[in-house]
Each structure stands twice: as C-alpha cells, then as structure tokens.
C-alpha cells in the first residue's frame, strides 16, 4: 500500500482507535493496528477483543493494500511529527509494516501479517438500527454505567442491559446494592431485538469517542448476535456482548411508595458532600442517614436531614427545606451511592420516594421519570 | 495439527465427534504422562471446535479455513492458551480472574471461547478454589481445558466438574509407523526412537530431534546391564561411577537415567508376562527377551515400583546416593 494523508487527520484517527488497542493481551497481534487503504481513505482498526474501533480518514491512495503496525509506537511517532502531510508505504521486500515519511523524517515500523488480524464485524446498511442523538447515548451511558459492578463475582452485573421494546430504549445496570434504569423514547417504534448485555467498561469507552454532536446508528443485534455495533460518521465501534441473564429488574423498583420528597438538587449535593466527610470509617460503608420530617399542616415546611456520625471524630448534619408528602421516615443509605447518582441528575429538583427503613428507595429528577435510580437501604449496628 | 497427532485414537475420535456434532462439554481435564501430547491435543480440539468446515465423515477439521489456520498459529481471538507468568512456576489468581472475566463475553468470531490451562498442577490452592465456580458453570459458549499428569493431581472438586480424557501410552510399533508417516522419518530411526520412548510420542520426537538424548539412553541401558551382571561389591562401585559421571547435574542426569531404566524395565515386565507382540523384533528385543526369561514377573514388577519410588524421592529432594542404594536393593538377582 502507498498513501498520502494529513498528519493531523491521521493523529486524530489514531487517538480514536487507540482506545481499543490491547496492551496486556495474550495475542501479540492485538497490540498492532490494522491499516487498510482503499479508494480514497485509510481505515484504521484496533481491537482488544472486547471492543473494536474502526476509524476512516481521508487519504490519497496511490496503491491500495493492508498491513499492521504497533499501535503505541505509531501513535507516539505520528504525534512527534511536525509536518502537515505524511506518506505511508508498505515496507520494501514484502515485509509487514509501514514506512512513514514526512518532511525529511523517515521511519520504518515492523508489523505483523494483517491476515492474522481478528476479522471485524461487518454491518449491512439494511440491517435494522436505531438512530439516536449522540448526546442521548452519552447521557444514558453516564446514567447507568457507574451502577454496574466492578468485581467479577457475578459477571452479569458488570454489564449494562440494553433493551429495545415498543419504541423505547432502556439501559439498566445494577450491582445488587443499587439499580440504575434509563429510558428513552425512540423514533422508530418497530425496532425490537432481544435484550443484550454490554460490558459497562466497553460502554464507557464508547462514550469517550462519541462526537459532541450528530447521530449515532445503534445496532443492538449483529448477524451473529455476539456484538453490538455503533456507527458514527467515519467511526465504527463494536463491543462483544456478555453471556448471561440479567435479573428482572422491574420487580426491584418499588411500585408504590408512602413518602415522597421534593428537594433542591444543589442543597442535597452539598449536604452529602458534608456528610461524607464524617461517614467514612473502617466499620461502616459510608452510612448517611436520610431523615424525612413532614411539615405540620401548612404551618411549618417539611424538611429532610442528611447526617453522618463517626465514632472517632464526630458528626455532621444538614437540614434542607423540602416538600414532603407522607409519613415521617428515617433511612440509612450508602452516601457514596447518593453522591454518584446526584452527579448524573441535571434537574434543579430531585425526588426521593421512600417506604420504610428496610425497603429500597427511589431517586429521580423532578418531573422526569425517564431515569430511575433505586438504592438498597443499609442497616446500622448502632 | 490433529492429523499429525499420534496416539490415543479412541479419545481423539471421541473428541472430534463431540466437536463436529457440537456436543461439547464445558470443561475437560486431559490427563497423561509428560510429553504425551495433552497440550497439542487441547489445541487440536480447539481447532476442531472452531473449524468452519469439518469433514462430515471423519469429523477432521479442514485445516485450511481461517479459524483452523489461526488456531494453529496461536492467533485465534477465541482461543486462549495460558501459561504461568514469566519467571513464575505457578499460575496467579489474577489469571483465573481474567479467565472469569473473559469467558463471560460472547465469542468474537467462532462459536465458542476456549481456554486452555496446561499443567493444572501449577494452580495454587486459592487459584484452584477460585476457578471452581467458573468450571462448574461457565457461560454456554465457554470451554475450559485443563491438563494434568494425573487426575489425582487436581482437587476432587475440580475433577468432578470436568470431563476427564485420559491419554495412554501407545505401542512402540504404532508410534514408529505414525512418525514415519506424519513426519517423514526413516522407519529404522523411527523404530529406534519409538522403542526408547516408553510409548510416549512426544518423547520419541524429542529423541529424534536430539541425538544426545538417544546416546544418553543407550549409555543408561549399558549401565543397567553392568549392574545386572555385577556382584554386590561391584554394584556399589558402579553407583559411585554413576554419581561421578553425573557430576554437577546429578538430579537431572539421574532423572534421565531412571526414565530410560523405567522404559526398559516395563518391557521386561511385559515380556516376562508373555506379552511380546507389541515390540519390534530387533537386537535390543533379543537382549530384553534373554533377560526377561530369567526373572519372575513379580520381581520385575517390584523393581519397576522401586524405580518409580526413586523418581518420586529424587523429585522430593532426597540424597541421590541413598535413593540409588535403596532402589538397587530391589534389583532382581540373576537366576
């Protein structure tokens, strides 16, 4: 192969695909990038077998062809170049690798046989898909992926469930202590495929490369049903899905709640930040008590108190005025979980829906039921 | 790779059929002595499972599809061949965690994700224990293949979760012919190597590739003959000579010596029981037969056990001289 392309474009492409370049892998070829030059572009591909990213960059193709080069070396080298244009050419003598020339610089990088590169998922344009705004996908990932488990004790919980049904896309993640469910209505009402489990780590990588605006085509089912596929202008992202059965999360969401609290998001955020300083200790898991006090017949407003006590160095509390509907209740939560969910709620006011100290509580934005977060209560030995 | 695999035909057929008809168990334990080809067979089995076009009659993988070729080069994205971390003897528990993590993903290209973990003896107890859950119930596309010298070397709880495939030594003649056929080795050379391999194809291949080993074996048998013909006092002198010849590398040299003796003595036992149609009738056989007629099967068996015990004692770091002295006490007296 022999191509001319802009160094900046090449650098941009490399920085995108490098998210998928494997470092600690048993297959040596995975630390390489696949270069394919055809018609008027170069396709860069990197994979770590969990995710595969392909990025196209415009180029003047003098000789089509393909090869592989070490991912990190290529990325670092292109970043170290200063010229505007670069030329990439196969190594002479049929060796695998690339010769990179630009403004007097020349480097030869040895690669491996491109035939050994794991084959990429190919998606037919006619394959049914969902067209979503990148910001919607980004926010759905942000709202759910942090709730997935990070340990491997139960692999199914390290993944996010993606469900497409009746014109609605649902992402759900849980780690047995909390559950995050994000729903979005989609335009195409007839796109329904079987539920898939996408590793949370892979989705996090996707959100890093999603452009700030535009449309992303989402294929939640690929012909061999083992991947999910996302297509953006010039970029393709695929992730291996997980085996397993996600538990029926809908039964975990309390259907009825006795106490409903509406409160300012910023106030709660501040209160949790304060309480967390006092909740950390070896023996408890960031216990923060949420005490809900209803107002008395319009004379005094309702309030919630967030408080934390540490046996060693003291305690703290903050009282916040709130609209309270229902009886008084005190529930202990893991303060870290509360802080994490507040990070992804953007509304000015949030709603707590609670029953009793022993039942899970719901946190969501006020006036918006598209995102629901359920947290299991804690028990205190005190 | 399966085409050049030698031995254990029944097991190989059975695995090939399982792979081609997709009746694949979730976990296997390949057992058999060192160099018998457990790892080779595991990789060949992986190839058979992933092959896109296995032969419908023989169930053999085609060997030319992209799956087959990449399994052969160790470059298939759905086959993971593990080994202990560089410079370590044992597998780390992180490697088991990595398997648990990787096996939960669906296959990249093939129908299965295959994890080959050779020498399961090198799993530490915590690593074995942490693998129990995934061995019992891996995701449906996951296949785990362990290998071990013997089924008793792994925890019973691991054994009960695996389908055991026991690989057994093959007759010398079978190995010789197979070597001549698949590796294009001159039959006389193949016979010579096979006769010294103890029925283990991998050992025969090593002997062919390394003529020094072959000479070592001949020397060992020569020493054995000397011992057999020696008076008691001469025996001690011979032990001295053996230890002196072994010089610095005593343990390694002794292991080779005992391996050779074991192979020779196994044949004595077979022949003394009247089993002799599995050997080539060459000069070495004549010598064997002459000797075998003079010992009772019971005493041959007794000395065979003494060799095995000596091997174990050497493995456990006992003093070489004492090990040899004790072992030679069981050497049958000439009739």
Estimate the strand proportion of chain B: 5-15%
What best-fitting shape of chain B do the alpha-carbon axes yield?
Answer: globular
DSSP strand content of chain A:
35-45%
Radius of gyration of chain B, Cα only, in angstroms? 22 Å
What is the element string of chain B, with H for helices and E for strands? HEHHEHEHEHEHHHHHHHHH
The oligomeric status of these chains comes to: heterodimer
* Average of pLDDT of chain A: 89
Give the N-terminus to C-terminus distance of chain B in angstroms: 49 Å
Q: Determine the fraction of residues in helical runs of chain B and give it as a percent range.
A: 40-55%
* Unreliable spans of chain B: none
Overall structural class of chain A, as computed from helix and strand content, comes to: alpha+beta
Q: If you average the pLDDT of chain B, what whole number results?
A: 87
Structural class of chain B: alpha/beta
Q: Can I get a quick summary?
A:
Chain A is α+β, with helices and mostly antiparallel strands. Chain A is built from 6 helices and 25 strands.
């Amino acid at each position: 192969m022999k191509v001319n392309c802009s160094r900046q474009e090449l650098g941009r492409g490399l920085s995108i695909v490098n998210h998928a370049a494997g470092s600690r892998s048993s297959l040596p070829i995975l630390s390489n990038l696949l270069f394919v030059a055809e018609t008027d572009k170069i396709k860069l591909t990197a994979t770590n077998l969990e995710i595969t990213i392909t990025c196209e960059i415009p180029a003047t193709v003098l000789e089509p062809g393909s090869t592989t080069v070490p991912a990190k070396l290529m990325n670092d080298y292109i970043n170290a170049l200063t010229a505007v244009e670069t030329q990439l050419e196969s190594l002479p003598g049929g060796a695998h690798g690339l010769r990179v020339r630009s403004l007097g610089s020349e480097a030869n990088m040895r690669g491996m046989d491109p035939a050994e590169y794991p084959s990429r998922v190919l998606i037919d344009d006619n394959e049914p898909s969902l067209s979503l705004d990148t910001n919607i996908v980004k926010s759905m990932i942000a709202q759910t992926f942090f709730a997935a488990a990070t340990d491997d004790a139960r692999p199914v919980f390290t993944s996010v469930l993606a469900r497409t049904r009746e014109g609605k896309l649902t992402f759900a993640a849980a780690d047995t202590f909390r559950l995050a469910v994000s729903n979005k209505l989609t335009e195409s009402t007839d796109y329904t495929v079987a539920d898939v489990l996408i590793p949370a780590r892979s989705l996090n990588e996707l959100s890093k490369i999603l452009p700030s605006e535009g449309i992303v085509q989402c294929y939640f089912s690929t012909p061999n049903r083992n991947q999910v596929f996302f297509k953006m202008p010039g970029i393709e992202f695929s992730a291996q899905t997980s085996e397993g059965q996600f538990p029926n999360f809908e039964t975990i969401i309390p259907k009825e709640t006795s106490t409903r609290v509406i409160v300012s998001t910023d106030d709660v955020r501040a209160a949790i930040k304060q309480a967390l300083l006092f909740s950390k200790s070896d023996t408890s898991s960031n216990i923060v008590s949420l005490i809900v006090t209803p107002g008395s017949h319009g004379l005094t407003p309702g309030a919630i108190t967030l408080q934390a006590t540490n046996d060693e160095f003291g305690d703290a509390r903050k009282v916040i005025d709130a609209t309270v509907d229902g009886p008084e209740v005190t529930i202990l939560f893991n303060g870290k979980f509360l802080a994490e969910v507040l990070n992804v709620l953007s509304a000015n006011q949030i709603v707590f829906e609670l029953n009793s100290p022993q039942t899970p509580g719901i946190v969501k934005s006020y006036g918006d039921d598209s995102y629901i977060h359920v947290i299991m209560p804690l028990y205190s030995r005190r | 790779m399966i085409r050049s695999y030698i031995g254990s035909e029944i097991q190989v057929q059975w695995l090939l059929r399982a792979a081609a008809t997709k009746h694949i168990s979730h976990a296997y334990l390949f057992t058999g002595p060192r160099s018998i080809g457990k790892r080779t067979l595991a990789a060949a089995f992986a190839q058979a499972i992933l092959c896109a076009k296995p032969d419908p009659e023989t169930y053999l993988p085609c060997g030319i599809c992209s799956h087959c070729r990449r399994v052969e080069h160790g470059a298939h994205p759905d086959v993971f061949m593990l080994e202990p971390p560089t410079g370590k003897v044992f597998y780390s528990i992180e490697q088991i965690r990595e398997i648990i993590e990787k096996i939960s993903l669906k296959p990249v290209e093939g129908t299965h994700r295959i994890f080959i973990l050779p020498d399961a003896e090198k799993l530490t107890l915590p690593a074995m224990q942490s693998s129990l859950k995934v061995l019992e119930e891996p995701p449906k596309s996951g296949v785990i293949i362990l290998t071990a010298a013997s089924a008793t070397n792994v925890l019973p709880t691991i054994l009960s979760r695996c389908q055991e495939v026991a690989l057994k030594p093959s007759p010398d003649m079978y190995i010789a012919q197979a070597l001549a056929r698949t590796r294009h080795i001159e039959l006389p050379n193949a016979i010579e190597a096979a006769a010294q391999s103890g029925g283990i194809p991998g050992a025969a291949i090593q002997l062919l590739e390394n003529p020094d080993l072959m000479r070592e074996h001949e020397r060992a048998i020569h020493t054995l003959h000397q011992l057999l013909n020696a008076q008691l006092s001469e025996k001690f002198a011979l032990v001295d000579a053996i230890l002196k010849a072994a010089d610095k590398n005593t343990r390694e040299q002794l292991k080779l010596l005992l391996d050779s003796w074991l192979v020779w003595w196994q044949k004595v036992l077979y022949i003394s029981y009247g089993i002799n149609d599995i050997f080539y009738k060459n000069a070495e056989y004549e010598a064997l037969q002459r000797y075998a007629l003079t010992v009772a099967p019971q005493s041959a068996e007794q000395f065979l056990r003494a060799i095995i015990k000596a091997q174990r004692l050497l493995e456990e770091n006992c003093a070489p001289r004492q090990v040899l002295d004790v072992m030679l006490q069981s050497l049958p007296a000439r009739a």
